[in-house]
What does this fold into?
Amino acid sequence: MAKTDLQLAVQYTYELCGKYGSKGYALKNINKNGSPTREFARFAYLKYMLFLADSNNIINEAEVNFICDCLNMETSVQYLKRFLNENKISQKSVCDTLAQLLDFFTDIDILYGDPSGSISLLFIETINSVGIMLTVMDGSADAFQTTAIAQIMVKLHSQRAANLMHWQSPLKNRAAHVPKDFCIKANSQDNTLTANKKEDVKAEITEEIPETLDELMEQLHSLTGLKRVKEELDTLINLIKVKKLREERGLPNLSLSLHMVFSGNPGTGKTTVARLLSKIYSKLGILRKGHLVETDRSDLVSGYVGQTAIKTEKIIKAAMGGVLFIDEAYTLTASAGSNDFGMEAVNTLLKEMEDHRDDFIVIVAGYPDEMEQFLESNPGLNSRFRTKILFEDYSPPELMDIFKNMCKNYALTPTKEAELSVLKFFQKRCEENNENFANARDVRNFVDSAISNQANRIAKIIGDISDDILTSLELSDVENIILN
It folds into this structure.
């Protein structure tokens, strides 16, 4: 990424912070200036860049100029040194600060239902490019700097993947701290981007979810594997379309229950499909909002009499107009008969499903055998959840496809030898049928381990480190990886 493009990318992340901060979707920052989230972004970038620049205990003029140009600010070496001394900058503190900002950008992805996480990925790529370019300002990148960048990238990519996998309520008020005296004068030139420059970096996202029904269906069918799941959902969606046509023409209404059971082992795509389905239902006119609220036993059940119903009703209220996704739903009834309030949550849920049958859809998920026991624990459950979809484990070739897609997202290219080794690993993993096997989650953990191995390998390189080295996964990076 050229220096000018890099400046534009950084400025674009500022604009996102300002835009969503002004709408109330912001980090809850104690520094009450005009745009706290935007200021926190500037603070995070500066910590990161100074940490790398100061690795040799000298901040040279070229590095100061790069920082000022990149962050569009005016400052002095004296201020930067004071900033370093007062903030006790370490790799961990830098990583923690960047991780807080990453949460914000991931929340924007979640808010707009972007399964690829394009905004958060742009932020990580910008951080990576800023670091690489800064390290060569003094003529070459040393092993400490390249290792630090690689380790920070591993942490951010891992956190981003976890955030997108475990979809929570978007744009929470995340606590973030900026020193009270953190104030660097911006250049007199307006630090916002022109419309043309925005297009050079990334198209502006709109307030509406941009996907059409066809685009959402394409996303569903582009998911790796899940052949039977896709077929069953296609049939269900076709039934919904026919039902809507009959209603429009005044024909007798078809009885169609849209509450569903997703049964399958961990990492088989249940949550991902539920997210897509919530938006598909919205486009079909079945749901007025089309959002998804993901929850589990801990959010629904209390340890005190009468409190479980209150907690459950609160979650259900948040899901009105959308989909309520209850993961590991069988835990609600696993202790039935003891002093457990899980059944109270189930009874509350069944009542609300009846009272608001047209205003929200419930999807319960969990292991196949346990979900059968869950449905048999209460006569009302089987009648409410008539659609049951099995998510089968991924095959080794499908796991390889997931591996390649994750590598692509991280701008990593495995060698042929590395790919063959990974395929053999997942063939053995599937044959062993280990109880800890977690399908796509195993792939994510494997990729994280491979990236760590790559970072350790790169740290030993003396001299210039090319982009090819940074983006290549070699056989040694993927060998001898152990997953629980």
Observations:
- The two ends are 38 Å apart (CA to CA).
